[in-house]
Each structure stands twice: as C-alpha cells, then as structure tokens.
Specification:
Enoyl-CoA hydratase, six-stranded mixed β-sheet, 15% strand, alpha/beta, 2-enoyl-CoA Hydratase, Chain A, domain 1, 9 strands, 10 helices, three-stranded mixed β-sheet
Length: 257
C-alpha cells in the first residue's frame, strides 16, 4: 500500500493517511486502501487504533478530481459505498479508536475524525464540515456524528455555514476531546500510554453496548446521505461550487435544482 501506511505494535495499530502532496484528500484508490487497512486493524490483537495524517494536515476531505471524474453515477455510488463501509468499520471497531488531527480536517476528513472514539487536535488545527461550499451535504456519517456530539440544532448550523473552526472552538463544542500545543505525536503518544494503563476490556464493552444500540441509526444515516448526495451531485449548485473552487473564486449559488 502506498496511500495508506500502517504499523502494528501489538498494543496500538497505527494508520497514516499518506497523500501529503494533496493534503491527504481522499480519492478512490486511497479509500480502497483505507478500507483494506481497517480490515487488517479489525483482525489485529491491538486494543487501540490511531489514525493520523502525514505532511501538513489530517485530511482536506474528498478529492475534487475524483468528484469531477465520478460523473458516472455507478462510480459515484461505488465510492459512497466504500466510504460507508469505512465508517461502519470505524464505528464498530472492537478497539478504542483515536484520531490525531493537525492542519486541516475538512469535509470527509472531519467525518472520519469524528467517527473515532477520541479526537485529539494540535492547537493550530482547523476543522470544517464544509461540503456546503461545493453544494453538497456531509457524507461519511457526518450528520450522525455531529448530532451525537453537539445536538441537531448546532449540527445544522455547522453544516449550513461550513464554518471553519479552530481547535479551541471545536473543543468548546465537544467536537474535539483534547487540544495540545507543540508536537502532536508526542502528546498523542502520552494519550495512548494513558489508555494502555486503563481497563481497556471494560471500555471496549461499553463501546460495544453503544454500538449495538446505535449502529442501525448510523446505517440509516449513511443510506440517507447516499441518496441525497447522489441527488446533490446532479444539481447546478454543485456544478457551480466545483467550478468556483477550481477557479479560486466565491461561488454564486442561486439555483433551486
């Protein structure tokens, strides 16, 4: 694998998003590799899984070129199905999952981070559920995870505004569990050491109970996101959002279809 790196210490299974030249934006091949890596993580005896990004950020979200090349409805549907599989594996992983965020965690990148049990952020990190900027809705379970952490009203506001949050702002909203200054790897390592000294079996049993209670709701959310996202991809607003992004200008959304 090239786009996803991983290592298994026997205690911590570490996953690294490894497309730094594109701010770890997720394309078809990267998503497929991530799914394969999470299968390996599930099979590992490690009790903790860490996910982080290489280079300057965690992940800028879905790859714009992928969105352009996925004009084929079948390909777009396949990509969304892969994303849904990844999210369900993350949510049901029988381990404590930790996202270590630096730089940008935007769009699908933010959904992936929120799919983990603990979200750690470097002080200069920026988080945004910014699908609205290209006329789309959150996918990757973004609606589910935002609602769980901040409630429906605040979730809608974050989705509709696409607001870019600082790490401190995200922590105040309880989207981030801890903020660190300086070396994120060092602080994440200290967090993992503390987890390794905890009664992980009991923690994982609690996770399994919540997963059993709520997995059906997450599956339903993913199915609804898929249908809505495929509809949104056909809108003039989405086409305008993509053009504006590529032309580095503000989009002009005034379409109703």
């Amino acid at each position: 694998m090239e786009l996803i790196k991983w290592k298994d210490s026997g205690e911590v299974f570490e996953v690294v998003l490894n497309r730094p030249e594109a701010y770890n934006s997720l394309n078809e091949n990267m998503l497929k590799e991530l799914k394969e890596t999470l299968i390996l993580a599930e099979e590992s005896t490690s009790r903790i899984m860490l996910i982080k990004g290489s280079g300057k950020g965690f992940s800028a979200g879905g790859d714009i070129k992928m969105m352009l090349s996925s004009a084929d409805e079948n390909l777009a549907e396949e990509v969304i199905d892969t994303i849904s599989d990844i999210v369900m594996m993350l949510y049901s992983m029988p381990k404590i999952t930790v996202a270590a965020v630096h730089g940008a965690a935007a769009g699908l990148g933010m959904s992936l981070a929120l799919g983990c049990d603990h979200v750690l952020a470097e002080k200069e990190a920026k988080l945004a559920m910014n699908f609205i900027g290209i006329g789309l809705i959150p996918d990757g379970g973004g609606h589910f995870f935002l609602e769980r952490r901040v409630g429906e009203t605040a979730a809608k506001e974050l989705i509709w505004s696409g607001k870019k949050l600082t790490a401190d702002e995200a922590q105040k909203l309880r989207l981030v569990d801890a903020v660190f200054g300086g070396d994120l790897d060092r602080h994440a390592g200290a967090h993992l050491e503390k987890l390794l000294e905890s009664p992980l079996s009991a923690m994982i049993e609690t996770k399994k109970i919540y997963q059993t209670l709520n997995a059906g709701r997450l599956e339903q959310t993913l199915a609804l996101e898929k249908k809505a996202q495929l509809r949104m991809r056909r809108t003039k607003d989405h086409q305008e959002g993509i053009r504006a992004f590529l032309e580095k200008r503000k989009p002009h959304f005034n379409h109703h279809a």
